[in-house]
Amino acid sequence: MRRLIQKMKEKGSAVVVGIDPVIERFPPEILAASPRTYDRLMAFGTEVMAGVWDLVPAVKFQSAYFEACGLEGLRALGDLIRLGRDKGLFVINDVKRGDIGSTAAAYARAYLSPGADFEVDAITINPYLGDDSNEAFYRLAKENDKGIFLLVKTSNPSSGQLQDLEIQGKTLYDHVAENLKNNPYYESREDYSFIGAVVGATYPRQLKSLRRALPRSVFLIPGYGAQGGGGEDLKVAFGPDGFGALVNSSRGIIYAYEKNPAGIRQASREAVIAMNQDLNQWRMK
Amino acid sequence: MRRLIQKMKEKGSAVVVGIDPVIERFPPEILAASPRTYDRLMAFGTEVMAGVWDLVPAVKFQSAYFEACGLEGLRALGDLIRLGRDKGLFVINDVKRGDIGSTAAAYARAYLSPGADFEVDAITINPYLGDDSNEAFYRLAKENDKGIFLLVKTSNPSSGQLQDLEIQGKTLYDHVAENLKNNPYYESREDYSFIGAVVGATYPRQLKSLRRALPRSVFLIPGYGAQGGGGEDLKVAFGPDGFGALVNSSRGIIYAYEKNPAGIRQASREAVIAMNQDLNQWRMK
Questions:
Q1: Which CATH number is associated with domain B2-283?
Q2: What ipTM is given for this predicted complex?
Q3: Which side of chain A, N or C, has fewer Cβ within a 10 Å radius?
Q4: Considering the entire predicted model, what is its pTM?
């Protein structure tokens, strides 16, 4: 997280660009250039990153869209991850994994081990299995100087179905946050713990209460833009220093070219510039 | 699930062999035969399946152990899945995925679409994001005649941390079961719905109450053997017809050769024969 915050400072940005590629949606020039899934994903991802890498601290790959393309998709994912890291970006793989301890440790090795094909700076994890799952990720992340974003309150319409259930006057997501705060791995000698939290932009009230509950977590915030969350709602999430939140936009950036004839690279760039401006008015004091 | 139950009848078995390969643990003859990860995983998985395919209805691959081996691991996973299906086994990929609706649909395409590199008969999913995640999986599974196993009560020591929390006199896992039962996709004209549930063998009391709550779900039951769950505890899970539970053993079968000098193939076979005998005394009336 220290590396992430350093990059947020350097770039003057709290934006993470979400790369969720759907080949059917790609522009004709990419589809015409090659019939191969790998080539198409690489062309698309490379263009997006070329447009934004000097403007944002981080990119987030959504593993599902690459897995949906099979082995060629995963080969492209590994190569795009490396490209992002080579460009100095903090790279997150949004995998939302969770499993019994020994299996969670295998997932951790896949994404947090130096030299792994899919080595990234941070991943997202799912808390449903409890701390023997979470701690397998925390342990390897700590060893390898990596970050974790634990799902606390997600941005989707049905996130409340379980997450908002009330237990002894608190919601389930409050319990998840409390378990995190009380976990020995959460302690940090720095301003922020290496364990962040996923909290959706679409639920501003919850964002506010979770900011108080987890002052030392960087929040990874989905739901800006396409899913409906706006800049002002996010003000509280940034915290007093302005580095408490990393706000994701995927479709609003990577598909900006559908409404902007400047092409993928330039359209992504312009969308990021607008988003930086929007967010920075709320995060700067 | 119809296909699964047919295979359970044919083989006279409620065992699913869990293939969770850890290369460091492989026997010297496999390590000596090739230095390549792909070759080693293929040799191991092929030997295990050659030993058990005529004795069990199903195999379950734990995706984490293949992801931990990077692209070569995933290539082996795809090829072992195909080998299992070619041998007439019902193949489960234990991926425990869950995400917002559109992303969950991409995961569903990766594992449940005809012709996908990782196409299997069923996958496991995680309920933390609620029904827009779950339903994206249910929808594609129904379309493609596939199965889903929803995590309800997992087998690991810390599963109770969230799953056992009490909400209005019921636990969180009860809520997950109830949401499943009330979901329109759960209806079925056959004895069993295409949506099963993961319920750990290590919690017999919960297994009993969930059997009552979800009479039309096949339970995928981890935790037998290495994790401590025994045959008698499982009696109730099978239900009146004996087809309500598919009991997983991974380490107890695939690493049986460590205590049995007959080699991987024969040692796996003998371990499955013993497990079939143990379970069948409880499931037969």
A1: 3.20.20.70
A2: 0.97
A3: C
A4: 0.97
